[in-house]
Design brief:
Immunoglobulin-like; 3 domains; 20% strand
Amino acid sequence: MIRLLLRRAALATLAAGAFCAAAASASDIEVRPIGGTTAQMAALLARGGDGGPLRAAATAVPLALRAGSMPVLVVVEVDGASLLDGHPGGRLGIEAHLYAVAAGGRIAAARSEGIAIDLARAGDAVATSGVRWLVPLDLPPGDYALRVLLRERRTGSFGLREVRLLLPSPGDGAATFLAAVVPSTVAWVDAPSPALEPATLERLAAEIGIPAAFPVLPAGSAAAIQAWVGGGSAPELAAQLTDSRGASPAPAELEPAGASPIGEGLQALRFALSLPERQGLQDLRLAGAEGTPRALPQRVVLRPAEEAVAWNQIARVAPVTAATQSTSITPPLASKADRRRLRAAYDRAFGRFARGERVDAVLELAAFEQGALDSDRRRAMGWLEAAEAEALASAVARERQALLPLSLFYRDLHATHLEQGRIGLARRSERIAERLLVQLAETAADDEERRLAAAALESLAGELIEVGAPGRAADLLKRSADLVADRVGIWVALGALYEHDQRYADAALALDRALVLQPRHREARLRRARLYGLAGDAKRCAAELDALLAEPVADWIGVVAAQERVRALFAEGAFAAAAERLAAVSARHPGEPSLGIALAYALERAADRAGSRAAIARAAVADRAYAQAPRKLYAEPPRLLLAAGRAEVETAALLRLDALAAALGATGGNGRGSG
């Protein structure tokens, strides 16, 4: 059994490699080093965490374990569908940035590379699976947060991921390092870094297998996994699978199946791992006896057995923007006797959604609801709401885990109704999505689920910003901030959103909450200073802006602070003081022409015409270092932050479709209906 399992895994790995070679040759893909990140992207990297509309997963493992610098392989998998969403075609251009952040926020190593892919030749392969960036780092022993930032240049779509890597110093005798690794069997389009030795990659792929960033394992069956052990002799190992609440569904038994050397002081032990029937997200851990290493958790997905399936192929996440299609459901007649048929329509749509027919389920119900309104404008909305409330209450009462996928369904429905110009139906769908998420938060079993509900509310707020409803977006963001109140970034985003909506008193309260949590937060201080100015407290505004300018930090916040401060100095006629401040800030931002132009003006008014001419000359050749002008970054609603959790929320919702299907099992919601 074990030999057959491992042989099938090896064949699948080789087949995946052959597919990649055939579908996307080296001439179709170019990977090269690029400069550092823009200010906007660097801010995202500094913030850390996960998110962004580009769906990605990452993992990292050492290729040797020794006392000095260790070679580390970082594997980043990027979903092809999210890369191509909104792309006009031609050439796919990905900026890929990797930072290894050590204790105290120190950057221990970094790498930035550009990945260019010819979609005319390799587009089908990208769409079928996605892109895998393979990149090396050299790191000494330590505890690291590896932060990966990806950005598609033409669409502006980004993805941010963070993984932990623990590299201990090798000890004497006993092992000091342990990692649970699942070799990938999926045909990714590979984009190896030019810094990665081809021979190293080829040997790893042929003898051990490239680690999967987010493995999909067959529930109720056996999977081929590896224990990467280093620093000494391997201990007796046990495996444990735990869900989000720390509960273990069933014992996970390991059956040894051989070993292979990886590099200096490191070996891969092969096992067949028996898996429970239960599906969904799990954390896989390996541990030895007391006092021996314990592996960091490896997040895996348990699904029905499928050959060579990647996490991004479980369910495609795509926006519902297609035109409304015709529906086989007859619009309801003007009679209360049709209530059963109305209820069946919702059960049918929920059932199709639970079976993975995401787009078709939403389009069908959208057309049905519009048909109901067309048949009876006066009474249909009330009938729809009554039937819908009954269907939702029935599903949630049977299975509370159905709340998250149902909220995703109504977010899709909201987008579809908006696309078709049905404002009333869109608002109703948005209110239902919010209500379901609030219910999820209020009944959350633990902090992790409460944070998930908060992230879902933030994602919905981001969608409302996109359709021009900042006031409603702020209300949702306030609910999210109150749910998990220790997140500085959310209070800053809420303050920015209130400021954008001209609710200055609310903005001040939100920013004060952020500054209590993190008094030195630069964006919060900048926004608070401006609010002091708007409230007429010019002295405090000036003091806060001067404090920001005194800090030797080169970011967009410093540029905006300088612009705000010198504006007040110009109004006072203090041109020499303005020039003094602008000279210091311009030296930190040589690529920002607005500062040079303002400096030239200040120097001219201060009678320093030679200095003014020199400043104008420097501004004329300046190459703006920002993806967007700093002033525009300040004025924009916090779209990037609110989009950050969307991929995580959608993935979690799609992985709970089984719970929705179970909840609908006794309601006739199997997709066939009864009408």
